[in-house]
Amino acid sequence: MTRHLVVAAAQLGPVARDEPRPAVVERLIALGRDAARRGAELVVFPELALTTFFPRWWTEPLDAADHWFETDMPGPATRPLFEAAASLGIGFFLGYAELTPDGHRYNSAVLVERDGTVVGNFRKVHIPGHEGNEPWRPFQHLERYYFEPGPAGFSVWNAFGGRVGMMLCNDRRWSETYRVMGLLGAELICCGYNTPVHYPPDPSQDILAGFHNQLVMQAGAYQNGTWIVAAAKGGVEEGSELLAQSSIIAPSGQIVAQALTTGDEVIVADCDLDWCDRYKKTLFDFARYRRPEVYTLIAEPHSPAHAPTGREPVPPPSEPAVAP
Ligand code: ING
User: Fold this and answer.
1) What is the DSSP string of 28-96?
2) What values do phi and psi take at 97, rounded to 5?
3) Which of 216, 227, 217 is nearest to 268 (CA)?
4) CB of 156 within 8 A of CB of 188?
5) N or C, which terminus of the chain has less Cβ within 10 Å?
6) Structural domain of residue 79, as residue ranges?
7) pLDDT in tens, 290-316
8) What are the residue numbers of the active site?
9) What pTM was computed for the model?
10) Which residues face 196 on adjacent strands?
C-alpha cells in the first residue's frame, strides 16, 4: 500500500500594507476551502502570509514595527484559520513574523496537522538582505534588521504519514538546507516565499528570478529524493513585483504543478511519498555513496584561509611532443 498525500500550494497575490489581518485570513480560508474541495490534506501557505512584505520599509525604532508580528500562534487573528482548517480536515504550513515573549523576532512558520494540533515550528535560518537603512534602493530588503536567524536550524517531523520538513524563502537557495533535511529523512519539504523580482545589488539577476527559483528547488528535490511544495506571495505588492511561480516538485526534480497566475491560486498534486525511495535507495543512498570525511570544509566557518590564493592554476603537464 503506497503512501499518498494530496498536497496544495496556496499562492497569495499581493497583501496591501493596510490590509487587516482578518481580511487576509479570510483569503487564506477561501484558499483552504478550494484546496480541500480538490482533495488536499496539507495546504502550504506563503512566507509572512498575514501581512504585506514589510521588510521593504525602514521603521525606527524597531518596536514601531511590532504590529507586523504575531505574539501568539494561533492568536486572535489566526484562530479562525485553525478552526476552519480543522473543520475542513486539512493541515497547513503558515509563514508569519514571530515576536517572542522575551523580545526575539523571527521569520517563522508553523506546521499544523489535520486535527488542528501544532506539529512543529520553524525559524528561518538564512536571513537575506541588509541590516541598515539603504534609501538608495527602490524598495529595501531589511530582513536582517527585523529578524534574527533561527538558532535551531532545520528539523523534520513525523506528520501526514511521512517525514515533513520546513524552510522559508532564502533557505531554498542554499544546498545545505536540503541536505540537512535529506539526512533527516525528509520526504516532503514545505516552503513559503516572498521574492522580489528586482534585486538591487545585481539587476542582471532579475530576468533569471524564475529560473533561479526553479533551479534550486528542482536540484534540492532530486539530490535528496524529496517532494517540495512551495507557495509564493506574488504580484505587484506596494509597488514591488514579487515572483509567483508556486510549484510542487517531485523527488525526480520534475515540476508536477505550477501556478498560472500571480494572484490567489491553489495548485494541487497527489504526492506518492514512497516515490522518494526511488532516489534515496539508489543514486542518493547516503549511507553507501556519501563521503562526509572529505566534506568537512562545508561545515566550517568561511575564512580567508580558504579564499583563493590568487596563484595561476598549474597547467596540466603537456603531452610529450613525441612523433607518433
Ligand atoms: N526573499 C528573497 C529570496 O531569497 C532575494 C531574497 C530577493 C534573493 C531577490 C535574491 C533575489 O527569495 C526572501 N524573503 O528571502
Assistant:
1) HHHHHHHHHHTT-SEEE--TTTTS--GGGS--SSGGGGGGGSBSSSS-TTTHHHHHHHHHHT-EEEEEE
2) -90, 125
3) 227
4) no
5) C
6) 4-293
7) 999 999 999 999 887 766 666 655 666
8) 47, 124, 169
9) 0.94
10) 242
E strand segments, 124-250: 156-159, 162-168, 188-193, 195-196, 227-232, 235-237, 240-243, 247-249
Find the angle CA(223)-CA(227)-CA(233) to the nearest 5 degrees: 110
* Beta strand pairing call for 227-232 and 188-193: parallel
Q: Is 306 inside a domain boundary?
A: no
Report the distance separating Cα 97 and Cα 70, nearest Å: 6
**Ligand 1 pocket, residue 46 CB under 6 Å:** no
The tens digit of pLDDT for each residue in 78-104 reads 999 999 999 999 999 999 999 999 999
Considering only CA atoms, which residue is closest to atom 1 of ligand 1?
195
Does residue 311 form part of some domain? no
Residue 91 CB contacts under 8 Å (≥ 6 apart), including other chains: 41, 42, 43, 85, 111, 112, 113, 114, 119, 159, 160
> How many folded domains does the chain comprise?
1
Q: How far is CA 218 from CA 12, 112, 137, 181, 251, in A?
A: 22, 25, 31, 15, 8
Whose C-alpha lies nearest to ligand 1, atom 12?
195
Nearest CA among 264, 293, 295, 317 for reference residue 15? 264
Centre of ligand 1 from the C-alpha of residue 170, in Å? 5
Q: Tell me if 304 is assigned to some domain.
A: no
* 240 domain residue, yes or no: yes
CATH number of the domain bearing residue 260: 3.60.110.10
Express the helix, strand and coil content of the chain in percent, nearest 5 each: 30, 25, 45
Residue 126 CA: nearest ligand 1 atom is 15
Q: How far is the CA of 237 from the centre of ligand 1 (A)?
A: 15
What pLDDT does 317 receive? 61
Give the cell for residue 321. 611532443
Indicate if ligand 1 lies below 6 Å from the C-beta of 245: no
C-alpha cell at 291: 563521503
How many whole angstroms from 266 Cα to the centroid of ligand 1?
22
